[in-house]
Write a structure and sequence with these properties.
- Residues 1-26 form the signal peptide.
- This is Secretion system C-terminal sorting domain-containing protein.
- It comes from Arsenicibacter rosenii.
- With 142 residues, the chain is of the alpha+beta class.
- It has one helix spanning 2-38; strands at residues 44-50, 56-63, 69-75, 81-88, 93-99, 106-113, 118-125.
- A hairpin with a 5-residue loop joins strand 3 and strand 4.
């Protein structure tokens, strides 16, 4: 009788584990399918960082398809294009340094497009003001 109860208990435990794991697997599969259906495929990434020279800026683009043509623009705050270029690179990573010394102070946007997807990063150009400092006189006592 004791063996029968133990066998029945083990069988019930195994059946419960199988039922729970198959239910969890179905839920995970359904949620994964929903996640990938809802989120569009990202083939483009854009990053910017300052160069050692304060008037220069590095831009790095990673693209999923190496031979695809990209259009790169720099626009001012009024969405006027101040620079435009097409990128034809067989590599998946492209980087370029920009000299922004000729641009006026203000808010600008880098825009990269592959025809389907657009990535934008905004940045602000500002020239530091000149502050007048008066000569100082220090007195030291021993």
């Amino acid at each position: 009788m004791k063996t029968l109860r133990q066998s029945f208990g083990k069988a019930l435990l195994v059946a419960t584990c199988v039922a729970v794991s198959s239910w969890a697997n179905a839920q995970a599969k359904a949620s994964t399918e929903t996640y990938y259906e809802a989120k569009p495929e990202q083939n483009l990434a854009l990053a910017m960082y300052p160069a050692s020279d304060p008037s220069k800026l590095w831009m790095v683009v990673e693209k999923g398809i190496p031979a695809k043509r990209l259009t790169m623009r720099i626009m001012d705050s009024k969405q006027k294009v101040v620079y435009e270029s097409d990128i034809y690179s067989k590599k998946t990573t492209f980087r370029q340094r920009f000299d922004l010394s000729e641009l006026a102070d203000g808010l600008y946007t880098f825009q990269i497009s592959d025809g389907k997807q657009i990535q934008e990063r905004s940045f602000k150009l500002a020239t530091p003001g000149i502050t007048e400092t008066l000569p100082q006189r220090n007195i030291t006592m021993n």
